[in-house]
Every structure is written in C-alpha cells, then in structure tokens.
Amino acid sequence: MLLSGILGLLATADVVRAANSWIVPGAAWQSTSGTKIDAHGGMVMKRGDTFYWVGQSASHNEQPYMYTSTDLLNWTPAKNPQNAIQYMWRPKFAKPNGSFWIYGQVDRNVQALKSSTLTDNYAVAGSKVTLPPSGYTYSDTGMFMDDDQTWYLLTSADHNNVQINRLNSDGAIGDRVNVLAKGAYEAPGLFKVDGIYFLVVSGKTGWRSNPNQMFWTDKLAGGSWNGPYSIAPDAEKTYNSQNTFELTVTGSKKTTYVYMGDSWDSKGGPDSNYVWLPMTVDSKGKKVSLEYHAQWKLDVATGEVVLPSVKRRYEASEAVVQGGARVGRRGVIGLSSDSKITFRNVTGLGGRQWVQLHYRVADREAGEVHVIVNDGPAVNVSSLNHRAGYHDVVPVELGLREGAVNTIMVGATGNEDAGIVVEGIEVVED
Ligand SMILES: *[C@@H]1O[C@H](CO)[C@@H](O)[C@H](O)[C@H]1NC(C)=O
Ligand SMILES: *[C@@H]1O[C@H](CO)[C@@H](O)[C@H](O)[C@H]1NC(C)=O
Ligand SMILES: *[C@@H]1O[C@H](CO)[C@@H](O)[C@H](O)[C@H]1NC(C)=O
C-alpha cells in the first residue's frame, strides 16, 4: 500500500467521532450521525428511558425534525422529515389521547399533526386554527403537561399576550385557562415546582437575544401572574439565547430543571445553536436562575449535574508568542492579525475532543479569535461556539491526535483595539 494511502487512513482515524460527553451551551452540537442537530424552537419529551427532541429544521424549510437519546448528550436522528409539512415554527409534542400529536405555528395559525407512533408518520390533523376564544393570530408555541396529565398549549399572540389553552382529548384547542398580558413577550415555556407554575418568556427582539423573564402563579386556571423577574444577569441576554422549553428531569437523587434556549444566528438559519442550562429554582422565594456552565451534563439516572474534572492546562505565557502580542500580567495581551500564540506538544486522546479556550475580548467588533490545529485550516471560534468573545471560557470541539504531539495555534483577525487577552487552554479529558 502506498504510504500516502496509509497516512490518509490515519488522518481519517484521527477525527473519528467519539460519543458526546458534554452539553456545551452555544457550541455546534453533532448528532450520532455526525450531522449538526437541526431542531430549533423545540421541545424534549421523555417516555420510558428515552428522550425525544422535536424542533424546526432550519436547513429543511422548517419541517419538524426529531432526534432520540437516552442521555441528553447523544442524539440519533429519527426518520426525517416527519411529514409533508413545511414552515412549521416551534413544533411541540403533546399526547392528549392515545395518539401522538405535534402542534406548531403555520402562517400564524396553529396546525396540529397526528400519528399513531411517536417518531414517524405524522399527518396533518384538521385545518389551521386561530386562537379561541378571540381568533388571534400568533407567533410562538409552547407546551406543558400538568400533574393530572392534562396538556396545555402555550401561544404568544400577535396581540402581545401569552395565552394558555387546554388541549381537549380529541386534540382540539380547548378553553383558554389563562393569559399573560403584561407586555410584549413571546417564546413561552412553563414548568411546575412544588405547586408553583413558572412561565419563562422572551422579549420580542427578532433573532437578537434579550433578557428573558419569569412570571409565576400558584393557580394555572385563572391565577394572576407575578413578575417579571430576571432569570440571568440582564447584560448576558440569557447567555445569547431565547427560551423554547423547560425540561424537568427527575432522577433518583435530585430533580433538575433544564432551560432549553435557541442561540439563533442572524436569521434563525442553520448556523443557529442551542443553550441548555440547569436552573436553580427556589419555589418558596419564587426565584428561577440559570446556572451558567461552559460545559456540563446531567446524570439522567440520579438527576445530578456533572462538570468536567479532568483537564490539562497550557498557559499562554509559556507558549510560543510571535508578532506584536506579548506576555502581560494575566496571559498574552495584544493579540491581533500580526501575531499568534502556539501551544506545542498538546496531549490529545485521539479523536474529537473539547478544548476550553480561556480568553477575553474587550471589543468584539474589532477582533475575532481563530484556532489552527496541526497546520489545518484556520477556524473562527465563533463558528464553533456562539459564546466566542462573550465568555472567558469557550469550549470548542477539535480533532486531536493521540499523545503529546498536537500543535494548537491561536490567532486573531483584527487589531489590538479588540483588547484580546489569552490566558491559556484547557484540554478536557473526561
Ligand atoms: C385521538 O383523537 C383523534 C381526534 O379525535 C382521533 O382521530 C384518534 O383516533 C384518537 N386517538 C386515540 C388512540 O383514541
Ligand atoms: C473569520 O472572521 C473574520 C472576521 O472576524 C472574517 O473576515 C473571516 O472571513 C472569517 N473566516 C472564516 C473562515 O469564516
Ligand atoms: C514535542 O513533540 C515533538 C513531536 O511532535 C517531539 O519531537 C518533541 O520532542 C516534543 N517536545 C517535548 C518537549 O516533549
């Protein structure tokens, strides 16, 4: 065999996909088929030991796409597309009777789909409807199942109200049980803790993120809403995301509530990612706050949050620094187009691996950081993780060779006004 052939095989083996080990808010998230997960404005439902994720496929005319998982990390595409429907926004599952249903927005009306199986063969069920009782058109869809197994459809009407309607057992949209009319909100999600209903909503700012808010009530049917309350520091704009659903995971030791948000690109397109974060919920004090982690996962058996613990750190001050950048008090400062930082002999496990880039950018308009692994192409960090420049720890998934043989170069586009400070990198090994 030709040497080049062998090297080619090795190069392919180099980047064989290992299973996903982490939920990484803002990062591109790959399915078990190696495709980017494409299910935005979605929802996750658990049945048995399996989680089912439905969302709109930005690269397939907003058809409802589905994925299944048993660990919330590794998602296998279901047979897609699910049906003939296109341009259905924010599809959500429900099971008001023996059939499986998807409800979403089509032409600012509610369209229902129905199937006898959860992941396949959905067909249009009935015609599009405006919202009873007022016949409002609407934008976003949410879904909630109460303890008594009654399903509720949440909608944000174009009339600036968030409306909650019961789903009847024939799948029809039933009575309006509550409405939030306290401003311009959309993207509603509802969850219940110790008898308190927490409603999470976004402001209306198109594809740009805003500080999402929480309202609460102790009575779903007719109760009045208290709020708004912040769920994260306002300046973080919900960590660059917009709410879509709140998932409750009940484990043997703990119940964890997960905020599921979309990290939209500039037009809600295929570059959009996801921001999932555990929430701290204080049902007595009526507080909900997102617990920010650059990288985390949930032990779905115990319900506990797990963070990476095995990391190898490389300091920028000990790397090879070339060009105008120089070692400052807290790392390498002044990174711009004319300079680069090269980390040599970085140990890899062989395959795709998370590398946390520890850096800050004072002015994101003035400069952008990229990485080059083993003389490969330059890749902008923002194309791997939407948190690039917005947070001091940005995990990116890179293909590393096995052993202390990798070279990771960190460079930038832009000038010194960007105020880029690189502290170092941490290669995650668990
Ligand atoms: C659920 O309701 C729909 C609409 O009335 C009906 O077509 C379907 O057969 C029902 N499913 C079951 C399993 O009862
Ligand atoms: C990376 O970002 C810079 C702007 O900061 C842009 O000029 C360049 O085209 C981007 N590179 C890629 C590969 O997208
Ligand atoms: C770094 O790795 C190269 C092989 O890529 C090797 O030749 C060199 O000895 C290593 N240096 C150290 C300090 O381990």
TrEMBL record:
Signal peptide: 1-18
Gene3D superfamilies (alphabetical): Glycosyl hydrolase domain, family 43
Alphabetical GO biological process terms: carbohydrate metabolic process
Keyword terms, alphabetized: Glycosidase, Hydrolase, Signal
GO molecular function, one term: hydrolase activity, hydrolyzing O-glycosyl compounds
RNA-binding recorded as keyword: no
UniProt xrefs under Pfam families: Glyco_hydro_43 (PF04616)
PANTHER family membership: GLYCOSYL HYDROLASE 43 FAMILY MEMBER, PUTATIVE (AFU_ORTHOLOGUE AFUA_5G14190)-RELATED
Protein family membership: Belongs to the glycosyl hydrolase 43 family.
Protein name: Arabinanase/levansucrase/invertase
Protein source organism: Lophiotrema nucula
